[in-house]
Amino acid sequence: MSEIKNIDKNFVANTYARFPVQIVSGKGSLCYDETGFEYIDLGTGIGVTAFGFCDDEWNRAVSEQLGKVQHTSNLYYTEPCAVLAQKLCQRTGFSKVFFANSGAEANECAIKVARKYGSQKSENCYNIVTLVNSFHGRTLTTLSATGQDKFHELFKPLTEGFRHAVANDKKSLENAIDDTVCAVMIEGVQGEGGVIALDKEFVEFAREITAKNDILLIFDEVQTGNGRTGYLYSYEYFGVKPDLFTTAKGLGGGLPIGACVMNEKTQNMLGYGDHGSTFGGNPVCCAGAISVIDRINDQLLSEVREKSKYIFDQLSNAEGVESVSGLGLMIGIKTVKPAKEVLEICRSNGVLCLTAKDKIRLLPALNIPLQALKKAVEVIKNACK
Ligand SMILES: *Cc1c(COP(=O)(O)O)cnc(C)c1O
Fold this sequence. Notes:
- By secondary structure, this protein is of the alpha/beta class.
- The chain has helices spanning 3-11, 44-47, 56-66, 79-92, 103-119, 140-145, 170-176, 200-212, 235-238, 283-295, 298-316, 339-348, 370-384; strands at 23-27, 30-33, 38-41, 96-100, 127-131, 162-165, 181-186, 189-190, 196-197, 216-220, 244-247, 258-262, 321-327, 330-335, 351-352, 354-356, 359-362.
- It has a seven-stranded mixed β-sheet with strand order 4-12-11-10-7-5-6, sandwiched between helices.
- Strand 13 and strand 14 form a beta hairpin.
């Protein structure tokens, strides 16, 4: 094992089961380990490097800002923060943005907005309904929101005020709602839960029942956002508009940023002093995010959908593949062999994939060249056999 791997094992907290690969450089959808071995990357740092490694345009945007001012705190105005918020609002029709540094923090903000909204109705209106098998983050409160018991066991007591309904089960959602509920929070496609898209009918029902009861609908677009599903945000695919949504991962193209985006109804929920973040809205991260958002246009989104169709067509009936799920370039593959085994075969043949539950998960760069994608799909096909 290389020296770096040893140092890491000795000094970095044991929270990650890393693959025995040290990535030393990359360009676009290709990257290289310490021996110079080349990989096609279909994981993008878990849906983060939206345009791949060291993309020229993104690099330029970030480096330019880095040469001007790297941080000011939120005591001062900076152009990238203001312009990014404006772009997000103009592209979505939403009204205001709070910037955080991660998905979990963006969700914490949405949860605070929902709680404050509820508190204006009644003292007991603070419950938030999330879905079984959801994933909303690792802070104690977003962990409580996460509908998977395996994450809860060792960390009780959890934050109060979360209930879990069964995904795609209208009755279950309806039963979870009463006058103590201030919000329903969903992922359009459950990512960590196994790359499972919600049914359109269920999402429409969630929109109807929340609107009818004056309850907020929150979309967690941390993983599904920023072009990942073939739409700028996945709620567009479902044909609904939430009251607020959160995003992170791909937004910064590789730098840490999260956002909680609020509509007319929720924009003024948080006032002076209600929330804050030292790094939130960092100008370098925002400059990177502006370059990402500016490139997610109709042309790119249609390419994402075409590449998605290519993957579905190639793998749906392939030998050793049970099913393919997901939306856009957020894809889950249920394989006959254990996913870990398929992942290992892919890796030794120069393709980096992810897993989600018992599936292979693919989150390639939004602009992955078709040639690299074809090559990688062949490797996956062979690994599944
Ligand atoms: C990754 C993820 C989060 C947590 O984001 P972090 O940046 O790791 O805090 C929250 N929600 C969803 C849907 C995610 O996929």
